[in-house]
Design goal:
By secondary structure, the chain is mainly beta. It is about 0% helix and about 60% strand. The protein has no helices and 7 strands. Strands 4-1-6-7 form a 4-stranded antiparallel beta sheet, with no helix packed on it. It has a 3-stranded antiparallel beta sheet with strand order 3-2-5, with no helix packed on it. Strand 6 and strand 7 form a beta hairpin. The chain is globular and about 35 Å long. The termini are far apart.
């Protein structure tokens, strides 16, 4: 599966969690990263990664636009 879609995640505070979720019949965590304020992660969907979950205040840039994530209040 060829996929050239990249997602850019910039942490706006310390401790932002980025979690990759698997593709297939069962959805499972397969990778996680913790970002500190100002750190940037560039991620790509693959044959194994079908979703990305982000916890914390971050700016997310995709080909579809920009969105901010935030902590649950």
């Amino acid at each position: 599966m060829q996929n050239n879609d990249y997602v850019v995640i910039k942490a706006m505070e310390d401790g932002v969690n980025v979690i990759g979720l698997t593709r297939g019949t069962d959805t499972k965590f397969h990778h996680s990263e913790k970002l500190d304020n100002g750190e940037v992660l560039i991620a790509q969907f693959t044959e194994h990664t079908s979703a990305i979950k982000i916890r914390g205040n971050a700016k997310i840039l995709t080909q579809y636009g920009e969105i901010d994530s935030e902590w649950k209040k």
